Amino acid sequence: MAEQTWVRLVTAQTPTNIAVIKYWGKRDETLILPVNDSISVTLDPEHLCTTTTVAVSPSFDQDRMWLNGKEISLSGGRYQNCLREIRARACDVEDEEKGIKIARKDWEKLHIHIASYNNFPTAAGLASSAAGFACLVFALAKLMNAKEENSQLSAIARQGSGSACRSLFGGFVKWIMGKTEDGSDSLAVQLVDEKHWDDLVIIIAVVSSRQKETSSTTGMRDTVETSLLLQHRAQEIVPKRIVEMEEAIKSRDFASFAQLTCADSNQFHAVCLDTRPPIFYMNDTSHRIISCVEKWNRSEGTPQVAYTFDAGPNAVLIARDRKAATQLLQKLLFYFPPQPDTDLNSYVIGDKSILKDAG
Ligand code: DP6
């Protein structure tokens, strides 16, 4: 390989996902093994996605990464775990057109450059790490010709960020917590694809794009150490909710889906409040959005919209169909007019979507 100066590039694009039954709490911090199963919906890549290009060349002398144009350190265990796991599964690569031939054993010596962009605010509670690690693992697997199925790749993405494992699929996805100590059975499976329930419209009301004060990782560590409510949630509540949610999704039962989604979001934030010191991810605007949706759903007699909030104040609103989405937007624009000095100033509209390989 000495005199070669080639570069092999792969680009992939991965959407983020939003949990409707939340993951909160790890039973193993290093392997990122959760205390309960979770279920999410994958968004449309046009709106909230990460695009990652990975490159390999004999002229690179170290692994390097740029996030949104700024170089970041790859020394963290999470990046190293993902790189190691994919390198261990690398296969021979032969590109006759470009005169590139990489033998399986060469991957141990070759270095990788990674450039990743989010088309939405990073670390603002919009699941940027989910799209980021899913995209990184997917792109690296393509680059190194790893032959793993997406479920197997999800178990690697999980070691970058728990929620990332669910972004390897479109539609509705379940992260099975698994039972084994090595985490090999803690992976994502697709429940239904993005076509199954295409009436749904997802609107994200960006209440604040500021970086959150308590990261999910730190927050859930404190919760595991101090919250009694978490144990009740993980052992008693979530297992039943997972079964009911799967049923609601499969039968496209919006009333049950909305009731479970809102209840689970509220319980996740109750668990945050039950943490010492308490964690407040939602703010007054988030609470006003909840009241607005609850009031509307009650007045209609049947739910029109479900709400869910992750580790930040931004609302993810899932409307039962386009008509409900239009009415919701009208209400949001009326109650929270988008002006530069208000704290609710943009809406991202998306459908559910599938992972797109741009490589
Ligand atoms: C509230 O996946 O960001 O969005 O595994 O420590 O990287 P780490 O945490 P992360 O946590 C996401 C938490 C959540 C709920 C969810 O997506 O299920």
UniProtKB/TrEMBL annotation:
GO terms for molecular function: ATP binding; diphosphomevalonate decarboxylase activity. The keyword Cell membrane does not apply. InterPro entries: GHMP_kinase_C_sf, Mev_decarb, Mev_diP_decarb, MVD-like_N, Mvd1_C, Ribosomal_Su5_D2-typ_SF, Ribsml_uS5_D2-typ_fold_subgr. Its EC number is 4.1.1.33. It is found in: Peroxisome. It comes from the Eukaryota. One of its GO terms (biological process) is sterol biosynthetic process. Keywords: ATP-binding, Lipid biosynthesis, Lipid metabolism, Lyase, Nucleotide-binding, Peroxisome, Steroid biosynthesis, Steroid metabolism, Sterol biosynthesis, Sterol metabolism. It catalyses: (R)-5-diphosphomevalonate + ATP = isopentenyl diphosphate + ADP + phosphate + CO2. Pfam families: MDD_C, MVD-like_N. Residues 202-359 form the Mvd1 C-terminal domain. Residues 15-188 form the Diphosphomevalonate decarboxylase-like N-terminal domain. GO terms for cellular component: cytosol; peroxisome. It is an enzyme of class 4 (lyase). Performs the first committed step in the biosynthesis of isoprene-containing compounds such as sterols and terpenoids. NCBIfam families: mevDPdecarb (TIGR01240). Belongs to the diphosphomevalonate decarboxylase family. This is Diphosphomevalonate decarboxylase. The lineage of its organism: Eukaryota, Viridiplantae, Streptophyta, Embryophyta, Tracheophyta. The gene is MVD2.
